[in-house]
């Protein structure tokens, strides 16, 4: 994942706009947000492919014509939801940078990061499902959202790994960004599919422990504490 500077802040600071480029007033912003909220709610109960503008507008208590004042189509509304979600991912990297990664404190930091990511995936599961689907289909907008969501975490973990190498706690032949990328992929994939693991009898608590141990050991070069 490539390094980048501040796209999350840019997304967060950008004024919401109507489909024609105008900045809506207070009532317009409230209507736009209501349409987004209804889209998010309906993604949790309907297939993304089956979601229609008329259904969202009806749920929001407005008309399809009003929907089109703010979004070109359903997909455009979902892109906005995905961008807003991705802006929240900055907290993962902040957690890594603010944490101590040695000894028991390092293991506690790993546990806390695992919990944050599991909780995040549960909260945003319906939007993340669309992000993954559209990214696999080659939609660059959603691929960029996924990069913004995870890139800072990847870079933060790589930075800690490089610091551990500099202090002699990790060997020089460890490639920091490759290791960070593998760890991020593990965290994301397991969090996204934990209900499938549970179906086959693997408890979330055990998944959490396994990920925390792998994360802590890979970043610090120390075996996780026992007991």
Can you tell me about this structure?
The chain has 227 residues and is mostly helical. The protein folds into two domains: 7-85, Arc Repressor Mutant, subunit A; 88-220, Tetracycline Repressor, domain 2 (Orthogonal Bundle), CATH 1.10.357. 72% of the residues lie in helices and 0% in strands. It has twelve helices and no strands. The chain has helices at 7-13, 26-43, 53-60, 64-70, 74-87, 90-98, 103-123, 125-136, 140-166, 176-192, 194-199, 204-220. The protein is elongated. The relative contact order is 0.12.
The separation of the N and C termini measures: 36 Å
Q: What is the CATH level 1 assignment of the largest domain?
A: Mainly Alpha
What would you report as the Rg, rounded to the nearest angstrom? 20 Å
Query: How do the SSEs run, as a string of H and E?
Result: HHHHHHHHHHHH
Mean of residue pLDDT? 89
Give the CATH architecture of the largest domain: Orthogonal Bundle
Number of helices: 12
CATH fold-level topology of the largest domain: Tetracycline Repressor, domain 2
* Strand elements, count: 0
DNA-binding region: 52-71
Protein name: TetR family transcriptional regulator
InterPro entries: Homeodomain-like_sf, HTH-type_TetR-like_transc_reg, HTH_TetR, Tet_transcr_reg_TetR-rel_C_sf, TetR_C
GO molecular function: DNA-binding transcription factor activity; transcription cis-regulatory region binding
């Amino acid at each position: 994942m490539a390094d980048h500077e501040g796209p999350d802040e840019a997304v967060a600071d950008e004024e919401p706009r109507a489909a024609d480029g105008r900045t809506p007033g207070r009532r317009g912003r409230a209507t736009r947000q209501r349409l987004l909220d209804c889209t998010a709610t309906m993604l949790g109960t309907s297939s993304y492919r089956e979601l229609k503008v008329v259904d969202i507008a009806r749920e929001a208590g407005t008309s399809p014509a009003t929907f089109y004042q703010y979004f070109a189509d359903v997909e455009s509304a979902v892109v906005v939801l995905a961008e807003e979600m991705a802006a929240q991912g900055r907290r993962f990297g902040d957690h890594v940078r603010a944490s101590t990664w040695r000894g028991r404190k390092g293991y506690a930091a790993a546990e806390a990061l695992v919990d944050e990511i599991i909780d995040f995936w549960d909260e945003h599961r319906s939007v993340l499902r669309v992000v993954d689907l559209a990214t696999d289909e080659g939609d660059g907008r959603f691929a960029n959202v996924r990069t913004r969501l995870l890139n800072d975490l990847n870079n933060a973990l790589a930075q800690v790994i490089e610091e551990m190498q500099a202090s002699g706690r990790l060997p020089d032949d460890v490639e920091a960004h490759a290791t960070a990328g593998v760890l991020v992929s593990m965290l994301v994939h397991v969090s996204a599919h934990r209900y499938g693991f549970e179906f086959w009898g693997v408890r979330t608590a055990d998944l959490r422990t396994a990920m925390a141990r792998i994360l802590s050991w890979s970043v610090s070069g120390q075996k996780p504490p026992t007991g």
